[in-house]
UniProtKB/TrEMBL annotation:
SUPFAM superfamilies on file: CheY-like (SSF52172), Homeodomain-like (SSF46689)
Ranges where the HTH araC/xylS-type domain occurs: 448-546
InterPro entries linked: CheY-like_superfamily, Homeodomain-like_sf, HptR, HTH_AraC, HTH_AraC-typ_CS, Sig_transdc_resp-reg_receiver, Tscrpt_reg_AraC-type_HTH
The name this protein goes by in its record: DNA-binding response regulator
UniProt GO molecular function: DNA-binding transcription factor activity; sequence-specific DNA binding
Organism, as annotated: Paenibacillus kribbensis
Keyword Hydrolase among record annotations: no
DNA repair as UniProt keyword: no
């Protein structure tokens, strides 16, 4: 049995797919739904999904961005693309992502089930050959570098099982008893700026360039393999192998190679990097510990001393903790002032907090990350309370993909403490501006206006995003308010109005069912009939006969 995830911001389309899909015959057990790419990624982390059906045009994270995100994080996942836009860019990304099929709206039963059958056949083929190493590689279309990356990641995160992966060990030289292994980790501090200014916003091209630089700076005595971490956007990992004979020099060689790479990245692309080098080890499994040490070294970077220059940590040292600054209470005060309209006082409190941090002896990168996460969380919660559709309430996280806002992009970069302070200040300013905008839009707003619009234009393609943009309110807030007021969700109410109108029109025997379907805004007569039966447990024809 298989599981399918449908990602589309239009509930009627998701419902149509549910209706016309031949799920039982195809052996599909569970059907999950998400309204945008960001929520789709969350569903993938929570459920065992085999096939994803994804719309290309969605809010927050569109189809192209979603496909790019899952290529690295879920390389085995099968995808079926749905689009109402016969656009070359969408088609090209679908081809690059090796999707199973590409369907155009409106979705027809035959096309949908053919695409699902193709996906189920691929899954069945995989299952049949999962114990055959070569067949598995062909079926999954996995290149050798991608396989090595997956293998190294399983070692670094501690999930590697030696007995189950014996045949893979020769790929990384782990079958040779005398080999030594080492790892270095690079955090790209100004990644967003470099991606925008040097690579025209193309993340994949930038990652390729960075790993290529690392490959070219490798020492001839070291065999190094570098790759971006699929779940940590700013992190590049380089795993190196040394053949027997120069074990005592490996730590020095690894440090020299990493230093050279950091220097070249800055010289070629202007990248500012914080790098950590773990201790060499004799067993490949021990790379997990070396990786953790390298990460800890990066976390210990003193933001107060960054000043726009790269930092390399090559050996364990005493970890000096940041001075205890009780920022939680201050953040709560800032949140309260910003939420109640005391914008100037909120900015003063934030400025005082930054001054206190700057006057300390050390402010570690790990603590800087934690402060941003907490500040982001509080602003997001405040925004949701106000029902404000502002940038802070829609961000994926403090270090997520470039956080798009109405005024442009808020970068997650900082290469000095001054940059860090500006980052926090910008977050606060965007929240304040968005909240003020939303509150101003709240004054003339009446939830019954949405009901009146639906009553009048029920035959149109009604989207919650239209109301959210019109009234400057979040989707979640609008749906909650409508449900509280009228006892129906917005999409439920649209369906109710259409079905009530359908009964009225069916009483007129001069109207054909196809005409009624068109009058109600359904593009497909079969979809209308299915929706009617779903709602009243009888088909339109049966209902008309009962009237007679």
């Amino acid at each position: 049995m298989y599981n399918v995830l449908i990602i589309d911001d239009e509930e009627p389309l998701r419902e149509a797919i549910r209706i016309v899909g031949d799920w039982d015959h195809l052996g599909i057990e569970h059907i999950y739904e998400a309204t945008n790419g960001r929520l789709g990624l969350e569903m993938l982390s929570q459920h065992n999904i085999d096939v994803v059906m994804v719309d290309m045009k969605m809010p927050e994270l569109n189809g192209i961005e979603f496909l790019r995100a899952i290529e690295k994080a879920y390389p085995h996942l099968l995808t079926i693309v749905i689009s109402g836009y016969n656009d070359f860019e969408y088609t090209r990304q679908a081809i690059q992502s090796r999707v199973v099929d590409y369907l155009l709206k409106p979705i027809h039963r035959q096309d949908l089930n053919q695409a699902l059958r193709k996906a189920v056949d691929i899954l069945a083929s995989r299952k049949q050959s999962e114990n055959e190493f070569i067949s598995q590689n062909i079926t999954l279309n996995m290149s050798l570098p991608k396989l090595k990356e997956k293998l190294y990641l399983s070692i670094l995160d501690g999930s590697f099982k030696r007995q189950a992966n014996t045949t893979l060990l020769p790929l990384i030289g782990a079958d040779q008893p005398g080999n030594r292994f080492g790892v270095s980790v690079l955090r790209l501090l100004n990644r967003d700026e470099v991606r925008r200014t040097r690579f025209h916003g193309d993340t994949e091209l930038m990652d390729f360039a960075v790993t290529n630089v690392l490959a070219q700076t490798s020492d001839e005595r070291l065999s190094c393999f570098s790759f971006p971490h699929p779940r940590r956007e700013r992190e590049i990992i380089s795993v190196c192998t040394l053949a027997p004979g120069q074990e005592e020099h490996m730590a020095l060689l690894l440090a020299q190679v990493t230093q050279k790479a950091v220097t070249n990245l800055h010289g070629l692309f202007g990248m500012v990097v914080s790098a950590g080098v773990g201790q060499p080890c004799a067993d490949v499994v021990e790379l997990a510990s070396a990786y953790a040490d390298a990460k800890a070294l990066i976390h210990s970077t003193d933001v107060l001393k960054l000043e726009g220059a790269s930092v390399l940590h090559t050996a364990p040292r005493q970890m000096i903790k940041s001075e205890e600054v009780q920022w939680t209470d201050r953040l709560l005060l800032i949140q309260k002032d910003a939420q109640t309209g005391q914008a100037n006082r909120a900015k003063v409190l934030l400025n005082d907090l930054l001054k206190q941090l700057a006057s300390g002896s050390v402010f570690r990168l790990q603590d800087a990350d934690r402060l941003i996460r907490e500040f982001h969380f509080l602003l997001r919660e405040a925004a949701v309370e106000l029902g404000a559709s502002v940038s802070v309430s829609s961000q994926k996280g403090a270090f997520g993909e470039a956080e798009r806002v109405a005024e442009g992009e808020l970068s997650a970069d900082f290469t000095s403490f001054a940059d860090y302070g500006q980052r926090l200040t910008r977050m606060l300013e965007l929240y304040i501006a968005g909240a003020q905008h939303a509150q101003a839009g709240n004054q003339p707003f009446d939830i019954s206006d949405i009901k009146k619009h639906i009553d009048r234009y029920y035959f149109e393609d009604i989207k919650i995003s239209f109301f959210a943009e019109t009234y400057f309110l979040s989707r979640e807030y609008l749906m909650k308010l409508f449900k509280q007021q009228f006892g129906y969700g917005i999409h439920e109410y649209v369906q109710k109005v259409r079905m009530d109108k359908a009964k009225e029109l069916l009483s007129d025997s001069s109207l054909k069912i196809q005409e009624i379907s068109d009058m109600l805004g359904y593009k497909d007569k079969n979809y209308f009939s299915k929706a009617f039966r779903n709602y009243y447990q009888v088909s339109p024809s049966e209902y008309r006969v009962s009237l007679q």
